[in-house]
Input
Amino acid sequence: MKKVFLFAVIIMAAVACKKSKDEPAPLSTRNQWDGRYRMEGTMTDHTNSNFRWKDDTYLYTLQTSGTNTDSLVSADLGFPGIVIANITNATFYSGFGLVLTLDAATNKVTGLTNYFGQPSSAGRSAVMDPTGANSIDPATKNIKLKFFMDEVGVAGHRATFDVTLVYLGTRP
Output
């Protein structure tokens, strides 16, 4: 009985470890937007004037998450998020980070979502502002974005961002 049980466990482990042919292959390359960036621009929190744009010195990376998607990761935070200020201190909105969808054929940002969910457990969602350029400069690789952070329980948009991701180079 022990031998049969052990044999069954080994077979089950082998089957569990075998890769399904329907499973997508992991991304082994980076897409063309993957790299290091500095974020410049403006931000307005419509519900709390203590939250505002910190400055244009914070560094980010766009990290490939799909063929045409990238997560915006703060170098200071070490995860998706945007550094802002609360009176004099650097801070960020918990549960809010961006995943960008980009189109190489049109040089446009065609969508963005909250990395942590729409809405996240903190009740926050990312919404692209269609009045913004939301575009990619193919010569410089700079990306212009205009978007809102919506929050459950807040009427209208909680915050407005109008930023440019200035391309600095490839990431390690």
